[in-house]
Amino acid sequence: MERFQSGYTSLELHLRNLEGVLKGTENTVKTKFLVVLALAASLVGSIPLLAHHGNAAFDVGKRVTVKGAVTDWVWANPHCWLKFDVKDDKGNVAHWVAETNNAPDMIERGWSKNTFKPGDEVTVTVEPVKNGNPVGRVVGVVLPNGQTLGMAYLEKK
């Protein structure tokens, strides 16, 4: 752990500050335990949230458009996933996975759990990952009937 100029680690500094707050309260072992537990839970709980919403893997601003057949439409939280197969000129199949936002958010954009079914031929525009794998974030989809769905919210009437 990194130590500051005072010689204390970040956790030790937090604990010292909490001790100052607790001076006016009954300083029991139970109270100290609950404070340390609450601090630990808040630190541990915040790490996955920061990691979850990172954009570092995506090539932000780049767009790739591919045509393929839907293999699965996962309607779930925290993200929906469109899985589809794309054939190249030589007949090789790339299994794409593209994420969208959460299901309630997608409803506000005109999507539903019945938007896709396996076998649907779709044209998908994604913001791809940087490493070149067939993974990305959906920007828009052209459905078999020609309807285009995107990530913009529908206008309220």
Question: Describe it for me?
Answer:
By secondary structure, the chain is α+β, with helices and mostly antiparallel strands. It has 2 domains: 10-52; 64-150, OB fold (Dihydrolipoamide Acetyltransferase, E2P), CATH 2.40.50.140. The protein has helices at 10-22, 29-52, 103-107; strands at residues 64-74, 81-87, 93-99, 121-128, 135-142, 148-150. The termini are far apart. Mean pLDDT is 81; it is low at 45-51.
CA(first)-CA(last) distance: 55 Å
Give the name of the CATH superfamily of the largest domain: Nucleic acid-binding proteins
User: Strand sequence of the main sheet, in spatial order?
Assistant: 1-2-3-5-4
The percentage helix is 25-40%
Structural class of the secondary elements?
Answer: alpha+beta
Annotated CATH topology of the largest domain: OB fold (Dihydrolipoamide Acetyltransferase, E2P)
Please indicate the percent range of residues in DSSP E strands (runs of 2 or more). 25-35%
Secondary structure tally, helices: 3
Radius of gyration: 24 Å
| CATH hierarchy, class of the largest domain | Mainly Beta
Provide the residue-averaged pLDDT: 81
- Supply the number of structural domains: 2
Offer a few descriptive terms.
single chain, 157 residues, alpha+beta, OB fold (Dihydrolipoamide Acetyltransferase, E2P), 2 domains, 3 helices
What's this, in brief?
With 157 residues, this protein is of the alpha+beta class. The chain contains three helices and six strands.
How do the helices and strands line up, and which of them pair or pack?
Layout: H1 10-22, H2 29-52, E1 64-74, E2 81-87, E3 93-99, H3 103-107, E4 121-128, E5 135-142, E6 148-150
Parallel strand pairs: 3-5
Antiparallel strand pairs: 1-2, 1-4, 2-3, 4-5, 5-6
